[in-house]
Amino acid sequence: MKILSIETSCDETAIALVEVTIKESSITADQIESELFSQIDIHKEFGGVFPAVAKREHAKHLPILLEKILKFQETRQREDKDWIPAYAGMTTQKMDSYLHKNDIWKEIEALLEREVGLFETFKKLVTAHETPHIDTIAVTTGPGLEPALWVGINFARALSLYWNIPLVGTNHMKGHIFSVLLDQKEINFPALALLISGGHTELVELNSVTDFNIIGKTKDDAVGESYDKVARMLGIEYPGGPEIAKLAQEAREKNIGSGDIRLPRPMIHSKDLDFSFSGLKTAVLYTIRDLSEITPEIRMNIAHEFEQAVTDVILYKTKKALEQKGYKSLIVSGGVIANTYLRSQLKALEVTEGVEVLFPKFTDSTDNAQMIAVAGAIESTKTAPIINPELRAQGNLPY
């Protein structure tokens, strides 16, 4: 299937065109084209993602990114004359009669009315371009920031209506799990997935691409959120996670480690597989409060000890989960996995635990639309996509 996918769950606006092939034993995903706009610089002044601003920027940039994708696809499909839609019965209806019969512009205007100027921009864009040769549109419906999610959902529904192409909603976290398929041809089941991002820290059991079970999750802050909060305590601007990781690595290279700084490893010996990082964050706050000054070396010490504490807990819980069942694969994904130290420690589990460890490419680790295309393709094997389904944003969408 050729899938156009849309991702607006947080502060990344992304659209991709991906060809996904699903067979009994494998899934392959070939990225054709992708476009992304990051809002990080915009949100710096707020010290975190501000939902109303994220919503505004998604509405502003979705048409810009889509136009780039359409221009690229139009060049390709001039040579793609033999293309037949996967859902031919739903997509062969004559567009002129469909528009006339359903008064489609009023429906589209109603979908886009909450975003000032988006309907006019949308109409100008789609009427200026050919209908792309795609089988399905996929869009993130959750979890995430609901104001941001709604922009992507309604934009996708409008495209589904205008192009008469079926649409499927997808789970953002499933997208992170399946992001490894953008670089791997197969996942050996049963598999364990460790998801570590700004909003989630979870251990998920997978018996197949459609059989999920959360076996461990954070009770409070997620890993990425904790990195950013600790960075703020140290006077580092948002997003602070990468800077904390850089300081920790510098402490290792200078062989100064954590110095005299000692932090707890919350819930490391609990009987379950859950996580908690709020106590660790509070411990950093008290440590900083009790110090007479924060020198550059002490800042490195704190960053190193914090990162080591996080790594120790994640490794311990992941090993514990692996020991409970004979998992053949460990999938590690989410934005935090761009952290090279944590990535290297988890990769070492291949030797110590005898399990295949799969990571997405660095470029596919953070939020992106490519992973949503793969998740959408898999979702469409369970429920056939339809034209303009009644999708809704779900901030806490379950698996």
How would you characterize this protein structure?
The longest helix is centred in the C-terminal third of the chain and has 29 residues, at 296-324. A 5-stranded mixed β-sheet has the order 3-2-1-4-5, with helices on both faces. A 5-stranded mixed β-sheet has the order 8-7-6-9-10, with helices on both faces. The protein is globular, with a radius of gyration of 22 Å. Strand 6 (191-196) and strand 7 (201-208) form a beta hairpin. By secondary structure, the protein is an alpha/beta fold. 45% of the residues lie in helices and 18% in strands. It has 2 domains: 2-177 and 365-382, 2-Layer Sandwich (Nucleotidyltransferase, domain 5), CATH 3.30.420.40; 187-359, Nucleotidyltransferase, domain 5, CATH 3.30.420.40. It has helices at residues 40-43, 51-77, 88-91, 95-102, 104-112, 118-127, 146-163, 172-178, 223-233, 241-253, 278-290, 296-324, 340-347, 349-352, 369-382, and strands at 2-7, 12-22, 27-38, 136-142, 167-171, 191-196, 201-208, 211-217, 329-333, 356-358. It is built from 15 helices and 10 strands.
